[in-house]
Write a structure and sequence with these properties.
This protein has 157 residues and is an all-alpha fold. It has one domain: Four Helix Bundle (Hemerythrin (Met), subunit A) (Up-down Bundle), CATH 1.20.120. 73% of the residues lie in helices and 0% in strands. It is elongated, with a radius of gyration of 17 Å.
Length: 157
């Protein structure tokens, strides 16, 4: 079965790759300054722009993995059950080694949800959340790579 024969999978791989590439670049830039910051006010405009890109791409990659790549992969393996709760799908994906850990996935999702709610009056909390998100970014990128490698091993022959 060739990947190219499955347009939904190809589109999902492309979308995830695009977000991952941009996320990795923004993460590298943010790693140069984020952990030295004491307050949100100490960030300059360019640093805020880089962090905005990390937050945006982290969320977009996490969403694309959940709503496009994982479903497409499970469908091709005949393991997708529409009425099943998403957590059960995650556990099945872990069992099939599509993802390394359902728990890790849940952490990424929780952080993405947390960071999407800004608290202007709690700038210390916002900065801590951003620092945590930046520290988790390599893990999300590794998850993306793990899924991509699984797909290429499984569907390229």
């Amino acid at each position: 079965m060739l990947i190219e024969q499955h347009p939904k999978l190809v589109a999902a791989l492309y979308e995830c790759h695009s977000h991952a590439t941009r996320l990795e670049y923004a993460w590298q830039k943010s790693s140069e300054f984020i952990h030295q910051q004491q307050t949100m006010q100490s960030l300059d405009a360019l640093e805020v722009q880089v962090l905005d890109q990390v937050v945006y791409r982290f969320g977009r990659l996490q969403d694309a993995l959940a709503t496009r790549l994982l479903p497409a992969t499970l469908h091709l393996l005949a393991e997708w059950q529409e009425s099943e709760p998403f957590l059960d799908k995650l556990h099945r994906a872990e069992k099939l080694t599509i993802i390394p850990s359902a728990e890790e996935w849940a952490v990424f999702r929780e952080v993405r949800n947390q960071i999407s709610h800004e608290y202007p009056d709690q700038s210390e909390k916002v900065l801590q959340n951003l620092q945590y998100l930046v520290s988790l970014t390599p893990g999300l990128l590794a998850l993306h790579q793990h899924m991509t490698d699984f797909i290429h091993r499984r569907f390229s022959t």
